[in-house]
Design a protein that fits this description.
Distance between the termini: 16 Å
Structural class: alpha+beta
Number of strands: 7
Helix content: 25-40%
Number of helices: 8
Radius of gyration: 16 Å
Strand content: 15-25%
């Protein structure tokens, strides 16, 4: 997820049908998705577990965030991310990568997504310069969902804008070596979590078409970041 107070910043959440048991920043919880690790893979067991999580009322949200802001979400000694996991019965992962961006994965009950995202957005914005302007978030969505989000002649994306009072933009290029595309949502910080929830509710029942290869930011390409909606290089943070 990306919190910037200008029109160039972007952030995204998305869905991932693969699970894993690794990741130093992974948390507890009954089920775990692969949150950006390994660059794809997975099999039928992972898909089955994904649908089990959906049946249990849980959903996965994947966002692209600047690496320099990852520390704010994790907290000193991991205390902040642990508190979020406990509060929302969520699995929240921010895999460590030596690139300008990371994938933040949240798996929790759908009725908790909005409030959890609000807390994370507020925490991410702490690291940015104080501003009362708009903020934005980059959500990862499967490339086959992009057309549905835009709609015929842009009808659906216009509807989303009117419904949420936020602006939506889907980047045309996939993230490197993946089937993910960035959906940038821009608007008032108080309205963004609701906009993310509405996006999730819209795409959650649309089946994937074609290969599903979740983005791993280890494949970051500075020459392509503008095309797919990624972050420019700079301070990697910690």
């Amino acid at each position: 997820m990306n919190i910037f107070n200008n029109g160039n910043a972007q952030m995204y959440p998305g869905m991932n049908q693969h699970y894993s048991n690794g990741g130093s920043s992974g948390g507890g919880g009954p089920k775990r998705f692969r949150g950006g690790g390994g660059g794809g893979g997975g099999g039928h067991d992972g898909v089955d577990m994904y649908h089990e999580a959906l049946a249990a009322g849980k959903f996965e949200l994947r966002m692209l965030i600047p690496s320099r802001s990852a520390g704010a979400v994790i907290g000193r000694g991991g205390e902040y991310i642990k508190s979020l996991r406990a509060k929302y019965d969520a699995n929240i992962n921010v895999p460590d990568r030596s690139t300008p961006e990371r994938v933040l994965t949240i798996i929790c009950h759908q009725d908790s997504i909005e409030q959890c995202v609000l807390e994370i957005l507020n925490k991410l914005s702490e690291g940015e310069k104080a501003s009362r302007g708009e903020v934005d978030v980059k959500v990862l969505v499967h490339q086959s969902h992009a057309g549905a989000i835009i709609g015929r002649g842009g009808s659906k994306i216009k509807e989303l804008r009117e419904q949420t009072q936020c602006r939506f933009k889907v980047f045309q290029e996939c993230c490197p070596m993946s089937s993910d595309r960035v959906c940038l949502i821009t608007g008032d910080s108080a309205k963004l979590p609701g906009a993310v929830k509405i996006l999730i509710d819209f795409v959650k029942d649309i089946p994937f078409k074609g290969p599903h290869v979740p983005y791993d930011s280890a494949a970051y390409n500075p020459q392509l970041c503008h095309a797919y909606g990624g972050f420019e290089g700079g301070n990697m943070g910690g």
